[in-house]
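Long-time lurker, first post. I've been practising inverse folding by hand and with some scripts of my own, and I keep getting stuck on stretches where the structure tokens seem ambiguous. Below is the full token string for one chain I'm working on. Before anyone asks, I'm not after the true native sequence, just a reasonable design that respects the backbone. If someone could post their per-position residues I'd love to compare against what I wrote down in my notebook.
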């Protein structure tokens, strides 16, 4: 029988009646995997981390770490006996310790763990050298967050829990930290659960992603599948990476929309001919073509550095996003006409 490194079995997480996530089951198969939990603020993501760390008890279900039950209705392993490290979003540094003393406290927690992680290397990669002798009240929120992350990494836990670990960090520095953090976690096989509201961060860092909405784990899958094959309209709306348009199934590999005409591709799920469906269109699904006879009005244009996202208005007042590489020679302005390549082919057709 296959053994998982970590497992939640039908666990309900509740800090209050309003802050509750029901009947959650998920597994982390291998040591060193990184799991990202996505969801809106106040949904209960932090409560999940606090409960896994042992700061909250559960009334039903089981939490297992390395095949040992650490939480159930009748079992509660105390936090200090779990070798789980939790880094909060807010400043949780010891106020009477300097930054370096806080970090050294983490390193001293678990000297026996055989993981090659050096204090100075972590301080360097998190850009903390210039503040290491300051106290928490003397540094910024972003610096405190990075110091807390350093302390958690150096405690060398069996399971690392990170609550919005990069939320207070400047955007210019965030991507660099993401790359280095993923490298450290992967190379040292530090199994990690990260709570974030940033889907790009989750898709980059996560081996798997869980989407938590309305008190439930709606989807738990590879980041690619979560993005390209969302399993519900709720997940589509939360990720906000496309729109749903009405269409009618006209054949085994085709459907029809009143504004766009025939759309062909591979259906992810079978629908009988004649079915009325909601088709998911993501910005990369349609191609630009100045010579096309299907032209729509540009109502908005967002510059993303490497690309533009044009929002096009159809005759029936649908607003469709289309991705265009920023080096494309012809940049369209608002109120201009924008051509859509025909025939329209969408590699994987997702409908609801």
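-- Answer (accepted) --
I ran through it position by position. Result:
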């Amino acid at each position: 029988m296959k053994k998982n490194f970590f497992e939640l079995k039908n666990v309900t997480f509740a800090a209050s009646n309003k802050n509750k996530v029901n009947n959650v089951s998920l597994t982390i198969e291998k040591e060193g995997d990184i799991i990202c939990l996505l969801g809106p603020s106040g949904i209960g993501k932090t409560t999940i981390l606090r409960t896994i760390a042992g700061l909250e008890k559960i009334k039903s279900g089981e939490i297992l770490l390395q095949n040992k039950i650490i939480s159930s209705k009748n079992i509660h392993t105390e936090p200090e006996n779990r070798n789980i490290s939790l880094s909060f979003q807010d400043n949780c540094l010891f106020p009477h310790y300097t930054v370096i003393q806080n970090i050294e406290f983490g390193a001293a927690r678990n000297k026996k763990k055989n993981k090659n992680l050096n204090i100075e290397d972590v301080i360097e990669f998190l850009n903390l050298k210039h503040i290491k002798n300051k106290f928490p009240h003397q540094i910024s929120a972003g610096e405190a967050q990075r110091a807390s992350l350093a302390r958690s990494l150096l405690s060398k836990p069996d399971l690392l829990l990170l609550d919005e670990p990069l939320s207070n960090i400047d955007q210019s520095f965030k991507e660099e930290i993401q790359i280095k953090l993923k490298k450290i976690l992967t190379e040292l096989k530090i199994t990690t659960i990260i709570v974030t509201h940033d889907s790009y961060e989750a898709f980059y860092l996560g081996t798997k992603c869980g989407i938590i909405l309305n008190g439930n784990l709606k989807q738990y899958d590879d980041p690619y599948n979560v993005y390209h094959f969302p399993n519900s309209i709720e997940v589509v709306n939360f990720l906000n990476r496309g729109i749903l348009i009405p269409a009618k199934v006209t054949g085994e590999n085709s459907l029809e929309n009143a504004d766009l005409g025939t759309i062909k591709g591979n259906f992810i799920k079978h629908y009988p001919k004649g079915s009325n469906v909601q088709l998911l269109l993501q910005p990369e699904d349609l191609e630009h073509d100045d010579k096309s006879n299907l032209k729509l009005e540009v109502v908005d244009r967002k510059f993303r550095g490497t690309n533009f996202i044009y929002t096009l208005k159809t005759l029936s007042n649908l607003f469709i996003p289309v991705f265009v590489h920023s080096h494309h020679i012809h940049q369209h302005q608002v109120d201009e006409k924008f051509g859509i390549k025909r025939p329209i082919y969408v590699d994987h057709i997702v409908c609801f």
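A couple of notes from the structure itself: The radius of gyration is 24 Å. Residues 242-349 form a domain with the OB fold (Dihydrolipoamide Acetyltransferase, E2P) fold (CATH 2.40.50.140). Happy to go over any region you disagree with.
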